[in-house]
Design goal:
Layout lengths: L1 E10 L2 E10 L2 E10 L2 H13 L4 H13 L2
Antiparallel strand pairs: 1-2, 2-3
Length: 69
């Protein structure tokens, strides 16, 4: 089962939040700068986890999420 975790990166004095998909202890895929706040990114990662989203669909779902704005 894939586990989704919020990741934080700092770049040019700016904090970026993304999500990494883990299979056991290995990062399968990660996307940076998904949302502006930790809370929004956490909600999205929880939604992915609760719905059992497979890693191969992760990028498509994030793309759809970002396109809704």
């Amino acid at each position: 089962m894939v586990r989704y975790v919020v990741i934080e990166q700092r770049q040019n004095n700016r904090v970026q939040y993304g999500i990494a998909a883990y299979d056991s202890t290995t990062v399968v895929i990660s996307l940076n700068d998904i949302a502006e706040t930790y809370e929004e990114t956490l909600r999205l990662s929880v939604m992915l986890q609760e719905n059992g989203v497979a890693a191969e669909h992760f990028s498509d779902i994030i793309e759809d999420y970002l396109a809704r704005e």
